[in-house]
Design goal:
Helices cover 14% and strands 28% of the residues. With 202 residues, the protein is of the alpha+beta class. It folds into two domains: 9-116, Umud Fragment, subunit A, CATH 2.10.109; 131-202, no CATH class.
Length: 202
């Protein structure tokens, strides 16, 4: 029985690469020798089910370490020359437009920027926690907008406040909006993180 042919396209799911991709986007893949991969490149890895799409954050001649832009720690499984993988070269947005996926130094800069943002949001969440008892004073955001990709956004008048991603996570569009606005209580999950939904990962 032969090795199955590598796919040329993949669907983006999950939040680990949000900011680089939006869940539901189509990713275009290309065969690339392991030795030409660079730190900062985004790869689709098919060594387990389901496949996952992460960024290379460390690499030497024998293996590479991958990690989601929004994850806390690297993947435990290393990428090797024998791994089944494809390089992500382009993405097609939900509106049909296509764009190149940056790799190398540009990709690493994106990774570092999202990791800094993640650390900041965690710090901001810790600062806001003492103010939770005052949530009854916040202005309700009762205008609900649903998008084709499954995202739900709440607004107060014309001010966008928060969004629920297709995976079910609720994020405020900016940390400060959690201080002044609240979304309907029926939609809240006690485990939802304080954060900014970027509208832009897997």
């Amino acid at each position: 029985m032969g090795v199955p042919e590598m796919p040329r396209e993949a669907q983006c799911t999950g939040d680990s690469m949000r900011g680089a991709f939006v869940p539901g986007e189509t990713l275009f893949l290309a065969e690339t020798p392991f030795e030409t991969l660079r730190k900062g490149d985004v790869v689709a890895i098919f060594g387990r089910t389901p496949y996952y799409v992460h960024r290379i954050v460390e690499k030497n001649a024998d293996c590479a370490v991958t990690m989601g832009d929004n994850n806390d720690r690297p993947d435990t499984m290393k990428l090797t020359p024998d791994s089944r993988f494809q390089l992500v070269v382009r993405a097609r947005g939900l509106d049909g437009t296509e764009r190149q996926v940056p790799g190398g130094d540009a990709g690493m800069e994106q990774f570092r920027r999202r990791q800094r943002r993640r650390r900041f949001l965690r710090f901001a969440g810790a600062l806001l926690r003492p103010f939770k008892p005052l949530k009854f004073l916040r202005i309700p955001a009762n205008t609900e907008t649903r998008f084709r990709d499954g995202t739900v956004q709440w607004s107060c008048g014309r001010i966008p406040v928060a969004a629920r991603t297709p995976s079910g996570r609720i994020r405020y569009l900016h940390w400060s909006k959690r201080l002044f606005f609240r979304i309907p209580a029926r939609d809240l999950n006690p485990e939802d993180a304080v954060g900014r939904w970027s509208g832009g990962g897997s």
